[in-house]
Design brief:
Aspartate Aminotransferase, domain 1, 115 residues, alpha+beta, 5 helices
Length: 115
């Protein structure tokens, strides 16, 4: 994971670190991991949520329809696609929204929302 973050430019790297902190605060028993060539947070050795940097945005995965639907109002202005929430560098995700996304998926301190 350190090598991944080191390869990301400073602005997006800062955003990824902020997202990681926000997600970890919402799921305090989570630990850092790396799968699918992306950093993630894991609980009980199972992926909880992934985050990655791209050319114009960072993304959170998985942002499935059961997660996105209840957050439709809060996600207005963010681009979503199947399984992904894209967060432009100039419009960071709030900590409250990161917390809501985990709560909406049914993930508290287990991975039940991913099954």
């Amino acid at each position: 994971m350190k090598a991944y973050l080191a390869a990301v430019p400073p602005g997006p790297r800062s955003m990824l670190k902020r997202l990681r902190t926000q997600i970890h605060a919402a799921a305090p028993t989570s630990v850092d991991g790396f799968t699918y060539q992306m950093p993630c947070l894991r609980i009980d050795d199972r992926p909880l949520i992934w985050y990655a940097a791209f050319t114009r945005h960072v993304s959170l995965f998985p942002m499935t329809p059961p997660v996105v639907r209840p957050l439709a109002k809060e996600l207005r202005g963010y681009e979503t696609s199947k399984g992904t929430l894209m967060i432009p560098f100039d419009k960071p995700l709030s900590g409250a929204l990161a917390n809501l996304s985990l709560s909406a998926s049914g993930i508290r301190n287990d991975c039940s929302g991913l099954q």
